[in-house]
Specification:
With 195 residues, the chain is mainly alpha-helical. The protein contains six helices and no strands. Helix 1 crosses helix 2 and helix 2 (33-62) packs parallel to helix 4.
Amino acid sequence: MSVVELLLLAVGVSMDAFAVAICKGLAMPKVTIKTGMTCGLWFGGFQALMPIIGFFMGTLFAGVIQAVDHWVAFILLALIGGGLIKEAFEKGCDCCEGHDADLSFKTMFVMAVATSVDALAVGISLAMAGDVNIWLAALFIGLCTCCFSVAGVKIGNVFGNRYEKKAQFAGGAILVLLGIKILLEHLGVTIWIFG
């Protein structure tokens, strides 16, 4: 995967955490650099760790399913992306329910794991896609998620949940498009969109 593709993947994967960070900011009476960075480091750290775990899980099974690995990568990315797109069209702000300003270890751990489960599946799909530097991918995903989460907390605090649905839709569309690109390339169709 090219650097541009990895960057797009990182943006797509980080949108779940961005949406939750918006909800966190919405619940906070005041946002400081410390509260923004706390959310950013929790979400970014787990979003970086999970693709690595998924990648090594995927490499264990890559030999077994090598003939259909491109389909597995496509299906996983399409399901994750489709789920984000579906959430973007659902009415109301479900993701904000139950979120409050609590930044305790227990709360942040649970939220970081919940928002990074998709990143685990992305890691598996990256193992199937082949020719991916997982360390660079994890770095991009972690940094991107951290930045989006810090921004999300501030945006949520200032603007409310106005951008949550748009972020989910954009992230979902990016993941679906990357899944289609992986599938088409393995089927011998050349794609020039992402370089």
